[in-house]
Specification:
alpha+beta; six-stranded mixed sheet; three-stranded antiparallel sheet; about 25% strand
Amino acid sequence: MFNPPTIRKVFEGVASRHEMYALFNRHSQSPFDDDRISGRRYVGEWFEITEADHDHMFEILLPLFYRGDMFAMREFLAASVTSVFFALMIDDRSRWFHGYCDLGDRQSPDRMRGEIIARESRPVRAMNRQEKLDHIWSATGPDFRGYADGRFPADLRNRRIVLVYPSAHGKIWKLLDDLTDKEIAAKLPVQFRLLPETIAA
């Protein structure tokens, strides 16, 4: 039975051009395992961009396909995974997005389009725990994030880690998924710390 990948927002707010390119490379430190080679590590991730960057990416190469409010990049990231860009009307306002879709699944772009609209149409702005963790990962520089290595038990290897700075212990690495609510709040930008939490769909 086919289980489509989780579609998830990985950056809160509208990414600048610099942030957009950094988000394209958010897995550049990941091991060259099956998830990266097949593109599974990327599929389902999306974030908001500016209209200018949406148009800029459209002009770089002739799109692989152009359909109404979306187009796909001709260059594949891995296997059948590529960038799909969306120009969507949400709550009577034009907005622009980038996401990674597996075109081996023909419904992937339409499913992502629907998920983005549903997520961004919520009446109350909120982030769930996973979105907060993904935003932290996306916004953290490569010198302050990485993947668990020989310092961690074998069953934790290759999981995402970030630097934390407990006052009593100095600088230590910690699994991203194990950050406490207090550590998450400390790493989030000030404007996102007090957003209400929503239950993940």
